[in-house]
Amino acid sequence: MHNDTIGTVISSVVDFLTDQSSDLRISSINTLCKAAEYAEVHDVISIIIPSFVKCLDDEDWNVRKGAINALAGLAQRAELRGSLDSVIPSIHKRLKNQHPDVQATTATVLANLVEHAEFHHRIGSIISSFVECLNETTWSVQRIVIDALGGALASHVEPHKMVDTVIPSITKRLKDQHPDVRVAAITALAKLGENPEHSRAFGTVIPSFVNLLKDRHANIRAATISALITLDRHAELGDAIKEPALTLIEWLDEEDQRIRRSTIDALAELACCVRLQVVISGAIPSLAERLKDQTPNVQTSAVSGLSKFAEQTELRYATCTVIPFLIDCLHDPAWSARKEGIDALGDLARHNELREMVGSAIPSFTKWLKDSDPDVRGAAITNLGKLAEHAELRDKVGAIIPTLIGWLDSQDCQVRITAITALVKMSTRWLEWRPLSSLE
Question: Regarding the domain delimited by 361-440, which CATH topology (the fold level of the hierarchy) does it fall under?
């Protein structure tokens, strides 16, 4: 009796799927989908699935979209999947729907449906349609399709088809006009490149990344660098991974300061890639030239890049040769270059191989402690404390303390404040390795 009553109610709701009001049609779809949460009505729901399919042709795109989502919801119930298998081609056709929201919903639903083993035999046709979509649909749909091809669907595609069809199609989207599509393509290719069976395709993919490293969108440059770092872990890609780094070095002399800056940032991030380090070490002399760049932002990136290079043991010796240029940079008219240079010295002193050369700059800290810019003075105080943490540098740091004490009687208020701040910051550390009497 109970099931008969429910069946009657569901039949009544089904009648509203053809109502003149699109809002009522959508509400009916949602109600029926909600009813499917109860196992006892699954027999009835399986019978009315054709009614959902008819809604896929509704004149209102919201109804079409609702019907697609409803069918996807029904597929979460294992008992209903057998009845839904024949429906997938009907959903499939909605990829060519004129409304982008319907297309996007269809792409998302299809990618999710094939996660169920009952629908695996549909993957081949879905992959083919997705590849077609990359040339025919809006950017929002392309992005969803690319994400699916690089993620959920990738494990179900035969390697030869991925290499011959899917990867080349995604690679073409690296030149797409919309930045979100380019980012999706970069990310998907990085994931696909982790599979050794796909390596044959990446001889042409990696060179396609090169121009993206100077894309005007920062998120695209960042995604490309991340992709190259990921791909560097896979030896099967051979020397192809080195080409972007070689091109980047050439760009260090570009006229456009934005390209010079983004190039330095990219090289600094890629310095962690083992197979690129031999190539990147060749960029260090050019990086030294950028320390004298006429554009402060480029100088700042060069200083920061030098610190990142030094974090890599294989690049540390080459970095050592640039420190004299860094010290010269500390006398630059641009306050940002002076500040970044001082911060870099504090960072570089962490490395034993560089400490002696860094120490040669310590006597000049008295000049930066009196710098006209407060950020430079602050950097000098902070990094003087950092340098004092290294036993090899303490004598040189200690030699500055009497000068600071003398500044306490200065007529210049700012000089007195700087002296007090620096002495307070250093006092605890100093007393750890020098008796108070040594200052007398």
Answer: Leucine-rich Repeat Variant (1.25.10)
Q: Could you report the per-residue pLDDT of 361-407, keeping only the tens digit for each?
A: 888 888 888 888 888 888 888 888 888 888 888 888 888 888 878 88
Place of tokens 């959508």: 26
List pLDDT tens digits, range 336-369: 888 888 888 888 888 888 888 888 888 888 888 8
CATH superfamily of 165-251: Leucine-rich Repeat Variant (1.25.10.10)
Give the model's pLDDT for residue 437. Answer: 45
Contact 189, 170 (CB under 8 A): yes
CATH dotted code for 1-157: 1.25.10.10
Domain borders along the chain are 1-157, 165-251, 270-360, 361-440
CA 72 vs CA 65, 125, 128: distances in Å: 11, 18, 20
